[in-house]
């Protein structure tokens, strides 16, 4: 069955006015939750709520292409919508996976898009009390069937999600938010930083002719992706970690996003030295936001003296804001380049909503693993030991 609906009286859910509070629910005649397993059924609703997004994982065309590339069965696709008087209020596009015997409902693209979040009619949701929002989220998650746990990872810290299940602090999301290159340059680059960038640029220029370009979808973009993934693969081998792009279906997805006729709004930033690609950045555009999902650079030590990755990013920063973008999202997790360029740091959290005993056990286990991982990152000796073991071990096979 592709579609199911659970319509519930607002008084039963406690969503009519609470404690005299006037809200979007106060005069509501009907609150409902629908669960569809067909992405085309929800396209209109999805696009209506996606006027502004926090992640490519909220982009309809991006997720539809992901589901197609991974041949996700319809029964494993869950599109959960909360309705108020026939108008969509909140929407979650989720995929069911079997992880060690646990039926987990989570974001389609997972860590490939960094942060993610439900799509919202924010203006109406902000009129709700905490109790009303908690009831809303519970109604949405309890409407799904054949699931042990709803696991929503890397949600930006936002009061509107405070009642969305159990929370765990996870990481930091880094963004560069400026109206122009001049503003970014003045705010983020000190005199010493500019001198350092100039010296790196001079070293790269000394190696030959340096060019920078932006590409959209098409045959040229496919050739760029091939180089980018080879550069990333070499980097992962050097680091001793698995390559998340080595999976055949993962690669097929990214290739499809830049194929002629693709509706996924891809922008590639490419730096060349003597015509050869030495650095690439793969981005998704949405409105005035640009999300960088992948970056790569040459592993050739003779070229690395000119820091091609940093020089590519410098050129991106010099053009992206003047091209009309206002937010350049560099994703979750600290890097040196994010420290240099990002003026916004947003905490992200994992949210868990166990629906069965197995789901509850899975949530506790993941929290324990996350705590251990954080302890390793915070302890230099443990971190060095793990890195040493990684380099001596064969990387695990990649998968979705």
Automatic annotation (TrEMBL):
A Pfam family the protein falls into: Acetyltransf_6
InterPro entries (UniProt xref): Acyl_CoA_acyltransferase, BioF2-like_GNAT_dom
Protein name: GNAT family N-acetyltransferase
Keywords: Transferase
GO molecular function, one term: transferase activity
Database matches in SUPFAM superfamilies: Acyl-CoA N-acyltransferases (Nat)
Superkingdom of origin: Bacteria
């Amino acid at each position: 069955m592709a579609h199911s609906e659970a319509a519930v009286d607002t008084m039963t859910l406690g969503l009519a006015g609470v404690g005299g509070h006037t809200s979007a629910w106060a005069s509501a005649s009907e609150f409902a939750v629908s669960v569809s397993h067909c992405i085309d059924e929800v396209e209109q609703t999805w696009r209506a709520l996606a006027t502004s997004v926090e992640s490519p994982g909220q982009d309809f065309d991006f997720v539809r292409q992901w589901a197609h590339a991974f041949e996700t069965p319809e029964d494993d696709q869950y599109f959960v919508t909360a309705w108020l008087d026939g108008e969509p209020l909140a929407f979650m596009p989720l995929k069911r996976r079997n992880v060690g015997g646990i039926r987990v409902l989570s974001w389609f693209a997972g860590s490939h898009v960094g942060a993610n979040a439900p799509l919202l009619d924010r203006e109406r949701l902000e009129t709700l009390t905490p109790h009303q929002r908690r009831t809303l989220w519970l109604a949405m998650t309890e409407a799904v069937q054949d699931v042990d746990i709803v696991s929503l990872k890397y949600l930006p810290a936002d009061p509107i999600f405070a009642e969305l299940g159990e929370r765990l602090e996870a990481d930091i999301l880094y963004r560069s938010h400026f109206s122009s290159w001049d503003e970014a340059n003045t705010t983020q680059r000190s005199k010493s930083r500019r001198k350092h960038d100039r010296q790196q640029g001079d070293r790269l220029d000394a190696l030959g002719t340096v060019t920078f370009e932006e590409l959209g979808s098409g045959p040229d973009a496919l050739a760029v992706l091939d180089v980018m993934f080879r550069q990333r693969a070499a980097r992962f081998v050097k680091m001793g970690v698995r390559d998340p792009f080595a999976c055949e279906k993962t690669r097929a997805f990214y290739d499809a996003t830049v194929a002629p006729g693709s509706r996924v709004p891809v922008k590639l930033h490419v730096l060349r030295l003597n015509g050869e690609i030495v650095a690439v950045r793969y981005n998704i555009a949405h409105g005035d936001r640009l999300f960088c999902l992948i970056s790569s650079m040459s592993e050739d030590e003779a070229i690395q003296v000119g820091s091609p990755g940093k020089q590519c990013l410098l050129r991106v920063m010099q053009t992206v804001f003047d091209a009309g973008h206002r937010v350049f999202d560099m994703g979750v997790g600290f890097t040196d380049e994010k420290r240099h360029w990002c003026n916004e740091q947003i905490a992200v959290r994992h949210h868990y909503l166990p629906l069965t005993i197995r789901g509850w056990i899975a949530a506790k286990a993941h929290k324990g693993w996350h705590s251990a991982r954080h302890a390793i990152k915070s302890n230099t000796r443990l971190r060095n030991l793990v890195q040493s073991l990684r380099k001596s071990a064969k990387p695990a096979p990649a998968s979705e």
